[in-house]
Amino acid sequence: MNDSDVNSKYDRQMRLWSSSGQTRLVGSRVCVVEANAVACETVKNLVLAGVGQVVLLDSERVSGEDLATNFFVVPEDTGKPRGERAATHLGELNPDSTVLHDKAPFESLLEDRSFWSQFDCVVNCRLDPCVPLIDLLWALGVPLLHAHSIGLYSLVRLYCEERTMVETHSPRADDLRIDAVWPELQEYVDAVDGPSLAEVPYSVLLIKVYQGFMREHGSRPGTKEARRRLAQLGNGDNVEEAIRKAALVTKRSSELSDKLAQLMQEKVDLATASPFWVLVEALRQFYEKHGVLPLSGSLPDMASNTEEYLKLQSIYRAKHEADKEELKGLALQVLAQHKRAEQIAESEIELFVKNCSVLEVHRGSKNVWSSEMLSESNPVLHNTNIYFGFLALNTFHKEHRRHAAPRDQSEVRALAISELCRWETLKSFPEGLELVLDELLRAEGTALHNVCALTGGIASQEVIKILTNQYVSFDNCLTFDGVRGQTGSWKID
Amino acid sequence: MYDSHLRKIFGSQTDEFRQSKVLMVGAGGIGCELLKDLLLMNYGEIHILDLDTIDLSNLNRQFLFRQKDIKKSKAMTAQQAVSHFNHASKLVAHHGNIMDTNMFPLSFFTQFDIIFNALDNLEARFFVNKIALFTKIPLIESGTSGLKGQVQPIYPYETECFACIPKEQPKTYPVCTIRSTPSKPIHCITWAKNFLFTQLFGDDVSDQDKLKPQDIESDNKAEIEALLKESNELLDLKVLINEAVPGDRSSVLKIVEKIFKEDIERLLRIETLWKTREKPEPLNCEPAKIERLDEQKLWTVEENLALFIDSTCKIAHRLKQGPVEFDKDDEDTLDFVVSAANLRSYIFHIPMKTKFEIKQIAGNIIPAVATTNAIMAGFSALSSIHLFHATMQEKVSKSKMVYDSNQPTRFVNTSGLAAKNPKCPACSVTRGIIKIDLSKLTIDELRKAVIDRYGYSDDIGIAEGTRLLYDYDFDDNLGTKLDKVCSYGDVLFITDADDELDSLELLVDRGDKLELPELEVPAKTVPEGNKEEEGEEDDLILEADDLIMEGDINGLDGPKRKAEDDTVPVKKRKLAVDEVEVIEL
């Protein structure tokens, strides 16, 4: 296929993460542990999206149960190595993607740093979250997802020390700077008067109204007052639009989201931190000096004479460029102060400035459990119970080498209690946990294809977010409850 | 069969899956996933219906299709692709349009226990919704757009139907904006795709299609005359194109001369148009030498001109083999629209766009990815288990509506099913199926039977679609046999001449003797005046919409709705639609 074919094949998804995201997917390697239904459904979505290479790690053979739950093995595969058969079928989905398999027993690889360090992301689809694997990948800095499903329940958990996200695609407010006009914009606004008022974008009208009110009253206008004054400017499209958007006069350009304010306060070692943190430090200095963030530079579509719109746009663009240069200078200073020789790519600075109001950082945890999870105030307590149920079943499975069944009810409940007591002093058995345990026992470790497909969809979506480093992932644990048809996610600290 | 695992989880319900017959409408992004999920639930019989063929841009998510399947029927290919799998379900594929009442009469639908919608356009969704209302078959509706999606189980007349919430209507632009005074890239793209392309390459433009003075919403006489002249000259050029010898660029150069220079000069002479607007500048440049152009980059005006000439020649050549229609996946037609739109933008001092961007706008492209489809198909298949509860009350209370979430604690939101909207244009209407032999009955006989059966006090009106068949002012057809004026699958609209009883919709189905449905036609309710309250704006609270820039391109606004958990308020529900293609610019 030539480039244009590749572009059309991935066209619909490149509209989500652009060619830069697609390039990262093509260059990525992902390891998936175990070739069960959740794993194969995850791999299917990665292969279709064009992830460069996937390695299926599995040492089992294809069984009747695989045939009933996993679409990617067929009756002729029965008794044959499962990883190899699944890899063959999944590899057929997309010639651009390579699906390999490895028959090495999982346990034998647990200390093999060179094996795991070749991957950009690992997905563990076994019941066991496997603490040694978590520790090893954490140390290597390789993001790990744990995904598993039994019956109508499933879980997906992300283990990653730190995720810094710039291209979050989060909704951004229009940054029009109604209350923070710079000299070039002021000059433009002052020149607009009389009949030319009918030809300019609404933001100019809002600035005029804002400044007029400030001069007269020394305070900012409210939405109602702004609307009243705008109504006196005539009845053009731009005035109508200004009236609809009048609430913007109350927006303070200096205001930061709590998240961003917190982010700028974070203490990191700038001598070793990633370029992201160097830029955050530069952003902090910029904000301290100017009281506003660098201008993102994009103007929304506004009713206006085309020429006036373009003039205004070039004023915003120029300011954006100037702010970007200043931020770049600050970043270079930070690097120099810490005797760092590296450069930060122009494109990276551009993306950072565009997205600086919606940056996102997640700090992960290695703990499989935290004591606050079962508190009454947890809004997704029911989903937390499911996670806990999986842990209890895993403990049972490790002890007995088989899946727990309804007849093991009392033992599993006892296990759950002793497990819980290891983490916290338990006042009472968490509400609803018994029902969740019974539901899990009913399935005796069996997976349901439907739930696996849904879970694979969620897991692969998170892997793609990690590989492209775009969009915000969940933070950091999620369970699906097929009885209630509900997902819930929360953070394990 | 391998259903021991299903039995562990669903018990005896497993047998009910086996005995059920389901219809899946659409074998695209969600459909491929859904088919796999339904097979592994062991449904007894699954019918796959799709009118579309496979395209390269489907392969990033429609996993049952391969490169070698391009141009083949989606429904047939999907059926074959899963045949290797050891499933127990009987599969039937239909390559056709769901709205084709000859191919899919009412009796086709009544064989199913459940209908799954996996569609990509609103028209077909509304159609299936209506079928579900006539037949009372539960419908599971689904859709995705990028990383968002929704699933809605519909129990006809019991819960909210697909039409209960008004959907956003496509945006249209006045003719003058498109033809004389564009100010945004979208105006130029609309001009290139809907006007120029059709005029130059469309089927012969009949008198009916010709631009008439009353179509132009302008009272500027000079402008109307200019536009009419422009159209007629274009028709002459069309003839030139049709007669051109391959490789002869002279006729194409004449087109360039006319549409990018002469027409603009003519507009410039109408000075009133440019009092408050910047004047356009007729094109004055030479085409560049082009080889490969990067679709993600902005091209120069010279490059656009070269591509315009090149693509026009190619399409003109292809016209000799048969008609050419605009298709976003047809490179020649897309190149034509991109270059024509950009040249026009340049002339009117409007920013040009990249091919990648114009493709999205001109092709109404909705982003799509395998992951979201997998998630929503999973929810859709799983929703069907609640249809097997014993009572309607249980079915409704256990079923959930699923839609995307922007809450940190929910990956997706779920809520209970809403009650039907009493003002819904679809499900608040009284309707039923009429069994009839159209060749035996006259309009008058039908009229009398309906009046008798439902107690209309005097007379009724009968219409099919927008076609009036009878009312007291129009009785010419009374003696006409029904098969002359309507066919099976049509919906007859009955109105009360005295405005006492509500109107009634009757779906015509084949039958030996006349059977009217058992129903009560309620008294007409007088519509209440529009009592829309204008809420007082709170000074300090900003409307979220004012502050959001990156919006859903195709969001269909629903009412405010509360999610299942009290702690998770949902501001607004947006419905996502898998690759909506119906919205015209």
TrEMBL record, chain A:
Keywords: Cytoplasm, Ubl conjugation pathway. Its main location: cytoplasm. It holds the Pfam family ThiF. Residues 10-487 form the THIF-type NAD/FAD binding fold domain. InterPro entries: APP-BP1, ThiF/MoeB/HesA, ThiF_NAD_FAD-bd, Ubiquitin-activating_enz. It comes from the Eukaryota. It is found in: Cytoplasm. Pathway: Protein modification; protein neddylation. Belongs to the ubiquitin-activating E1 family. ULA1 subfamily. Regulatory subunit of the dimeric UBA3-ULA1 E1 enzyme. This is NEDD8-activating enzyme E1 regulatory subunit.
Automatic annotation (TrEMBL), chain B:
InterPro entries: ThiF/MoeB/HesA, ThiF_NAD_FAD-bd, Ub-E1_IAD_1, Ub_act_enz_dom_a_sf, Uba2, UBA_E1_SCCH, Ubiquitin-activating_enz, UBQ-activ_enz_E1_Cys_AS. Keywords: ATP-binding, Cytoplasm, Metal-binding, Nucleotide-binding, Ubl conjugation pathway, Zinc. Residues 289-359 form the Ubiquitin-activating enzyme SCCH domain. The keyword Nucleotide-binding applies. Coiled coil: none annotated. The active site is at C176 (glycyl thioester intermediate). Pathway: Protein modification; protein sumoylation. Pfam families: ThiF, UBA_E1_SCCH. It is found in: Cytoplasm. Residues 3-426 form the THIF-type NAD/FAD binding fold domain. Heterodimer. Belongs to the ubiquitin-activating E1 family. This is Ubiquitin-activating enzyme E1-like. It comes from Ogataea haglerorum.
